[in-house]
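Run log // design_07
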């Protein structure tokens, strides 16, 4: 079982992004995603390992198609947040901007929640 530091701001930011994405889910399973979102927000607020474990178990109870969709949407949201952070840093920087390679991809939210399922594209 992979462990994550709940004192790490990036881990907490990733959990917050995942909670935001879950809040946007509509349709079948929408109530379940709201409950998981609340559990994730409790993790961010308390940095509690038991809260993290509860939220992880709750996430795992969601329909697999919903989990895949949420994971894909959360990955996109995380990349957008990284891009925005880079733009803000560039704007605020007084030093000349250095060219860098491609931005590093964020840690997968599925891994952050200890999911053991391989990600698959949702069926169209």
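design_07 sequence
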């Amino acid at each position: 079982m992979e462990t994550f530091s709940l004192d790490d701001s990036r881990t907490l930011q990733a959990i917050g992004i995942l909670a935001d994405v879950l809040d946007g889910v509509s349709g079948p399973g929408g109530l379940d995603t709201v409950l998981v979102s609340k559990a994730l927000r409790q993790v961010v607020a308390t940095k509690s390992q038991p809260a993290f474990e509860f939220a992880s178990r709750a996430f795992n109870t969601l329909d697999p198609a919903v989990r895949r969709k949420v994971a894909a949407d959360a990955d996109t949201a995380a990349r957008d947040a990284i891009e925005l952070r880079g733009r803000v840093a560039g704007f605020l920087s007084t030093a000349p901007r250095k060219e860098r390679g491609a931005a590093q991809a964020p840690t997968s939210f599925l891994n952050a929640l200890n999911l053991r399922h391989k990600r698959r594209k949702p069926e169209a």
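The radius of gyration is 16 Å.
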